[in-house]
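Translate sequence into structure tokens.
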Amino acid sequence: MAAKGRAGAGVRALSGSPFRSLLAAGPSFPVGSSGNVEVVDYPSHFYDEIKNGILNATRRVILFSLYIGHTEAELVDVIAKSLEQSPSKKIHIVLDGLRGTRGGPKGSSVSILQPLLSRYPSTLQLSLYETLNLRGWKKRLVPPRFNEGFGLMHVKAFVFDDDVVVSGANLNTDYFTNRQDRYVVFRNMRKLGDYYEDLAGTVSKLSSADSADPNGSARRQLMDFGDRWKKATLIDRSSTAHDSARTATVASGDTPTCLVPTLQLGHLDIRDEERALDEVMSVINHTDHRDQSASTSAWRVTLSSPYLNLTPRIIKYIKEGTAEYRIISASPQANGFYGSKGVSGYIPDAYAYLTSKFVRELGSLRREQITLYEYDRTGWTFHAKGLWCEYEGKMRLATIGSSNYGHRSQERDLESQIYLVSEDAAVMDRLQRNVDVIMSDAKEMPAASSIERGKRVPMLLRAAARSISSML
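Result follows.
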């Protein structure tokens, strides 16, 4: 993310945005019409979007997901029907190799897709990503499920011709029914679809990287991908005019919304997301000119992570700044691992301890400007992640994607985010409503209560949470 000084349609249109420097780092995609950005609020609507997208696409479907549930017969039937009705359509599914094969030949993502792969070998492609962090003796000795802690393909993006859905949700029943996540649809964005199609092709080659230098080879492929798209959005920016019903608006540089996609794979030193987040946090900290004793801030930041284990870098920005923060996480009962059998059943308590540790680190002064909330809806779990930044009561930036803002997202998993920078009131109102929907089922968790809950976590579990926090 280094192409300093690059100007283009989005940069000119957003010259008044405090986050305009993000657009100069590229790649970035102008959005021509506010109607091209739709926010989906609930799981069942997301499922409908996925099914309709697969059925209605005529050229291409790309599905990035950690896994597909091994009982998702309806979804597989939709894929089969789609291939039958459009024989020339190409479908590429990208899953994580560890999570996608968990359950073996009779109960995994691969097993439920295998009949279709055999029936449509030329139009259906399945790619399984395998982390380069797990090789040699570790791959042989670390047991299933535990091996997933070394790194996963965590991207959640779905392309249907020229429409792109970016989310944090996987393709499984929970995410279609009662697991609250986030979902943003970008309509008529051909070049953004091309970006994710190219990413699918790139990711599909990473695990077969040069055996003599697998890390170096994989890193070069991801660097080449990034360079391609920086050049594509620099040289051919005006071609995005065809993605919009308002050609003249985009071509003249008047579009007030731009999308900045980022990648993160820290162990290969691919750190676009990290640098983008640094830029956002720096802007917030350096444009909030007030004394720490003041009662209000020009900035209000809402940060959501279902698994709250923020990196030291993010905590440092929060501690040193003066912005007001609302931080949303899952209550223990809304944690996706609540009630799990075996070791996984201890994970909600481990996050309760890590949350209390974060609250203690803030110190008493900053605690007054930071409010912790817990999503707690009966019968539902929580999986929504994202960042919303308001300046003087106006939403200026929001993210959508896969990162949980923890050490694992920063260093181990392959993550993809979209930074949405906009001056379009209609677009930002939709994103404001999105966070309001989430907040409607969230309850304030006083700092003292969080600290007290952390103290109730058994000492051995606290020690274990500290020792494996980089995998959480």
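Note: The longest helix spans residues 214-235.
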